[in-house]
Amino acid sequence: MEQAAFYIFAALAVVASLLVIGLRSPMHSVILLIVSFGALSGLYLLLDAPFTAVTQIIIYAGAIMVLFLFVVMLLNAHTEDDMGGPRISGPAMGVGALLSVLLAAEMLWALQRLGVTGFGPDPGGSASISSVARIGGALFTTHAFAFEVTSILILVAMVGAVVIARREH
Amino acid sequence: MISLNHYLVLSGILFSIGTAGVFVRKNLITILLSIEIMLNAVNLTFVAVGRYLGTVDGQIITFFVMTVAAAEAAVGLALVIALFRHRETLIPDAFTLLKW
Amino acid sequence: MSAIFNQTVLAHFILIFVVFQCLVLSAAFMVWMERKVCAYIQDRVGPNRVGIEGSLQPFADVIKLLFKEELRPKAADALLFTLAPVLSAVAAFAAFSVVPFGNETTLFGLLDQPLRLEVTDVNVAVLVIFAITSMGVYGIVLAGWSSNSKYSLLGGLRSAAQMISYELAYGLSLAAVILLAGSLSLREIVTNQSGYWWHVIPRWYIFLQPLGFLIYMTAGVAETNRAPFDFPEAEQELVAGYHTEYSSMSFAMFFLAEYVNMVTVSAVATSLFLGGWYGPFLPEWLGWVWFLIKVLLILFFYVWMRWTLPRYRYDQLMEFGWKFLLPAAILNLIATAALVIWLG
Q1: Which CATH architecture fits B4-95?
Q2: Average pLDDT over residues A121-141
Q3: Whether ipTM exceeds 0.85
């Protein structure tokens, strides 16, 4: 049962990602990326990480993708064909695709030398506190500094995005 | 049995799909989407290895990666909007004025 | 295969079916209640032809809508155009799946194991509701964009911007309740509210979090695009909104989604602030009656607000959400955290 769920989610994620980079219209790419994020959220559930699964939907599918959607709609982003302008030649794109395939092959070769490694028992299952409590405990004690720095980062990004996208008057 | 290997292989495939998207596509927004695919593949690796090692650190790093991805998407899209205002196009090759 | 006919699994399937049907019927009931309450507020009678006091009016409306022609603009994106109302409706129904509406029951000993009255309960239930509500934005945005009409696009964008702005205050008011309860599971939050203080005042969180309740209800009204925050819909009267190109059942699905969203927001407010299914005078196994009464009360407030208050202008709406409601929610959270630490 768990195997079937893994393969379904994995196939969905891979197919959706392939269509994201393959389709012409950016709007369709954004929708398919949302589907891919949903599939990844399902994989996180299989990995006993319910908090990460739900935050993936809230942050990625619910906020970042809405931002992408807004930009695509406001810019009326056309497909690449009817944009005109200078284009690099076909062979250069072919080299790029070849490099990605080589990257995938290299990673798969390295992983098959790793040997099959099964998962241990669920670490959060027998614990008395829920996974969210454990994440919160670790986040605010061991990783407190990173947490604070990240919040400053978000503040800077927010201000920066507003300033950059502002219309000059 | 689904082992750690399965998750790492899936993550590697997703990462190379994202890389292919960055190399091949000629639309700024699609390039940003491919970068998001790559970040997600990395998230999956973190959570899978965290589960394998039995710690919660994988999920915590994922939390930070998601936050940084949100910040990067916001600033990246603001740049795209500003660039579009100047050139009316989203092809990255149109912004090559500084090339020799 | 025999696992399907296991008694608990069967009971669960029947429960899911019953919940789904009740949600659809509640949307129909809301149509009737809205028109009746609106009528009495405006000093008239309202629908009274079809059925007793017009109670079959929603069904007459549905039959009328079913017979209308399903139009689609030629230049509209076919897949997204048909997908958008489906997305809205699915998000609205799915959000109700983690709301508990009663205690465990064995149906008078008919079942071997007690059945909990909820579709499911995950230990991150509050976050699940928040996640599914944020997915509901996509139905509106895609409807606005795929209609390929300038007015639809702008109406959809405005509505989506409003929804994501008020999601922040919504989430922060939820966070304050989670601080009090110490758990993200809705069932645990409700069971924390059982019992009484000094045998008189029930231990509901509304008495501990009055500001939080107000913020939650305001954000909930804005989330569901209801008055006085329904400017994107009122544009229909002046200019068209995001569902202008939709007709017949797609249009009906948008309104089904809106009413079910209202029911979900009311149900979550009941679970978080009003003590869920706990109430005096009734035995424990009839708790769902109290749940129903509380949800109906909040829905009545929704309808009352719509026909009493004038609507906000769009910039007033956004200013209110960002400059007043969000700081208030943050202050509420900080104050709650301080009090929880101080009082132990």
Answers
A1: Orthogonal Bundle (1.10)
A2: 71
A3: yes
